[in-house]
Specification:
The protein is α+β, with helices and mostly antiparallel strands and about 500 residues long. It has three domains: about 5-50 and about 165-240 and about 345-395, 3-Layer(bba) Sandwich (FAD/NAD(P)-binding domain), CATH 3.50.50.60; about 90-160 and about 240-335, 2-Layer Sandwich (D-Amino Acid Oxidase, Chain A, domain 2), CATH 3.30.9.10; about 405-500, Alpha-glycerophosphate oxidase, cap domain (Helicase, Ruva Protein, domain 3, Orthogonal Bundle), CATH 1.10.8. The chain has 13 helices and 23 strands. The protein has helices at about 25-35, 70-85, 110-120, 160-175, 220-225, 300-310, 370-380, 410-420, 425-435, 440, 455-465, 470-480, 490-500; strands spanning about 5-10, 10-15, 15-20, 40, 60, 90-100, 130-135, 150-160, 180, 185-190, 195-200, 205-210, 215, 240-250, 260, 270-275, 280, 285, 325-335, 350, 360-365, 450, 455. The strands form four sheets. Strands 5, 6, 7, 8, 14, 15, 16, 17, 18 and 19 form a ten-stranded mixed beta sheet that branches. Strands 9-4-3-13-21-20 form a six-stranded mixed beta sheet. Strands 1-2-12-11-10 form a five-stranded mixed beta sheet, with no helix packed on it. A hairpin with a 3-residue loop joins β16 (about 270-275) and β17 (about 280). α1 runs parallel beside α4 (about 160-175), α1 (about 25-35) packs across α7 and α8 (about 410-420) packs across α9. It is globular, with a radius of gyration of 23 Å.
């Protein structure tokens, strides 16, 4: 049963205030609400507005982390990869990667050893193991330059990153959590064993109280501490901001496989099938100074990514081919690594108390892959403050729409074709991918208007009602990527309809 929110006079008192509506914040809110805590989550913008929608869209162990001997992170990530694949097979699915051997870079024996560890560290069950591949008839190497004759094929997973954030929030709400988007925490003060927080939505200012706080504000995690009265904000930040940029170009090759390329600067670049008609290329690692500075792909980054893939593909790419770019700021824990590429991708949890005995946990770093485990660790860290808190539960739980029998998406899709014989099979497949078993809820009143780019009125109404979409861009670029497939006129037409429909 969802926990009831208590009150002091007219001021609601929650067990836990979670600040930040990215992957870490929503995962914590979901887990905590499912353990019986009364939870409120505040996000100053839309869900997944920043880092969590700007990833490379992978659920992966982090093959490159092995070079830094970060076996713990790789093992945890590989275990979580299989848990998440089972929990959300509609938005997470297997993806095979081609790693070509390039003479003069990492030796073949090192690649083989790394992939052996990758196959075996995490107790792999669902995904096929590594295979050696060579150029030949119908080989996936045929699109690569002739010098690349052999390499390896291994498994990781794709994820619709911003949808995973939304589904965490949906599940949290189903467990009783209050989800407040476009709501900023303006001040925090410890008093009488609680935290008193002023939160603002537009012109509306409201007071809430909480028995504990989780600061999952991502790039703003240190900035948020400055809103806490009597807090000792460190002069030297523990946060390292690193910008990662991606480019999207027309499809460079056929097939549902991805490539991972080594570069002479020792970084790796991914080329991944994207949204049916495109190839996604990324990422960069560039120091970023201020969290409020909007991250954008620079001309240098775009050229760098083009140059990297041009070293491998026969089909050449220029900056003029780029149809879309996106950038995000990774809020990494500062381990003092000299190079931004070498900074740890693991997370650090900092437990403090400010003028009260109530816990205040700040989250530094983290990955989409390990978000569920991070949430579990947060709650284990504070469980003695909540003696009635329930046991861990998310390891075997589905995400909303993810209860697909045997995690077999193709079988599920075929069953839905029978349910919707009058709909275009392509559209049925898209609905199944976006919503899984909740597709019947989406289509309860039919498809409605089609705006272009496979975006429908049914999508928009559902996303507003159940997933906190409050503006056209929330639908076009985060809950879906339909904006990429639409003309400017179509996007403007949808935006006008959205405003006229007054869905909120």
């Amino acid at each position: 049963m969802p926990a009831s929110v208590q009150s002091e006079g007219k001021v609601p008192v929650y067990d836990l205030l979670v600040i930040g509506g990215g992957i870490n914040g929503t995962a914590v809110a979901r887990d905590a609400a499912g353990r019986g805590l009364s939870v409120v989550l505040c996000e100053k913008d839309d869900l997944a507005s920043h880092t969590s929608s700007a990833s490379t869209k992978l659920i992966h162990g982090g093959l490159r982390y092995l070079e830094h001997y970060d076996f713990k992170l790789v093992r945890e990530s590989l275990k979580e990869r299989e848990i998440l694949l089972r929990a959300a097979p509609h938005i997470i699915w297997p993806l095979r990667f081609i790693l070509p051997y390039d003479e003069g870079l990492r030796p073949k024996w090192l690649l083989r050893m790394g992939l052996f560890l990758y196959d075996n560290l995490g107790g792999r069950e669902l995904l096929p193991g590594t295979k050696t591949r060579k150029r030949g008839q119908g080989s996936r190497f045929d699109v690569l330059k002739d010098r690349l004759e052999t390499g390896f094929e291994y498994s990781d997973c794709w994820v619709e990153d911003s949808r995973l954030v939304a589904l965490n929030a949906v599940d949290a709400a189903q467990q009783g959590a209050d989800i407040f988007t476009r709501t900023e925490v303006r001040s925090i003060k410890g008093e009488d064993g609680l935290y008193r927080a002023e939160i603002q939505n537009g012109v509306n200012l409201k007071t809430i109280k909480a028995r504990g706080i989780v600061n999952a504000a991502g790039p703003w995690v240190d900035s948020l501490l400055s809103t806490v009265e009597q807090s000792d904000v460190k002069d030297e930040t523990t946060l390292r901001l690193v910008k990662g940029s991606h480019i999207v170009v027309p499809k460079l090759y056929d097939g549902d496989h991805a490539f991972i390329f080594q570069n002479s600067d020792e970084r790796v670049i991914f080329a991944i099938p994207y949204e049916q008609n495109f190839t996604l290329i990324g990422t960069t690692d560039v120091p970023h100074e201020k969290p409020d500075d909007l991250p954008q792909a620079s001309a240098e980054e775009i050229k760098y990514l083009c140059d990297c893939v041009n070293e491998y593909f026969k089909t050449q790419t220029t900056p003029t081919d780029v149809v879309w770019t996106y950038s995000g700021v990774r809020p990494l824990y500062d381990d003092k690594a000299a190079d931004a590429s070498d900074v740890t991708r693991d997370y650090v949890l900092d437990l403090q108390k400010y003028e009260t005995d109530a816990p205040f946990v700040s989250v530094y770093g983290g990955k989409i892959t390990t978000s569920r485990k991070l949430a579990d660790h947060v709650l284990e860290k504070i469980k003695h403050y909540y003696p009635d808190m329930g046991k861990p539960w998310t390891k075997k739980a589905y995400f909303p729409g993810g209860n697909i029998p045997e995690a077999d998406f193709e079988e599920f899709y075929q069953s839905q074709l029978d349910h919707y014989p009058d709909l275009d099979p392509k559209l049925v497949r898209l609905f199944c991918r976006r919503y899984g078993t909740r597709v019947t809820r989406v289509l309860k009143n039919g498809v409605g208007r089609i705006f272009g780019g496979d975006l429908t009125e049914a999508d928009a109404r559902y996303l507003v009602e159940y997933e906190w979409a409050k503006a056209p861009e929330d639908v076009l670029w985060r809950r879906t990527k339909c904006g990429l497939h639409m003309s400017e006129a179509q996007r403007e037409s949808f935006a006008e309809w959205f405003r006229q429909a007054k869905l909120n």
